[in-house]
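Notebook entry, structure prediction.
Reason for the run: the old model in the group folder had no record of what sequence produced it. Starting over properly, with the input documented here first.
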Amino acid sequence: MIYNKYDLMNQYKSSKTAKVVKPTTVRTEWQEQLAFCKWLKMQYPEVRFRSDIQSAGKLTPAMQNIKSIIDPFRGFPDITIYLKRGRFCGLMIEMKRLNSGLYLKDGSLSSDKHVQEQGKMHEFLRDNAWKVEFAEGMDGAIDLFENYLLY
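New structure, fully documented this time:
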């Protein structure tokens, strides 16, 4: 083995190579949601929206009980945009982090119980004139919103 002082792997005196893993910063779902809401507020300040930040933290047992009374339905999307377009009364976006595994290889929705629950709520909302979609990451949400503006 030839020693090269600039090759950091040589310090281990091994002929085997190691995979170099570069640290990546993967934003959480609520961080993606926050980034999209900041973008929406800056680019379209006249658009009214509401963002649910339940995924940003844990509720105490007492607050969980109160929430179950005042907000009894599960699966509502994270972001509601109050802007009528075409036949839709508004746009709702369920945010997911990038590469969340939301869709299976065959294109169907993940079998995860929570995702299935969200999918059922989306069907209900679509039946009531809402445009409802999942978005992976801020860029996915931006694409959805900008396409929604074309209706």
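Summary: The chain has a mean pLDDT of 86.
The old model has been moved to the deprecated folder.
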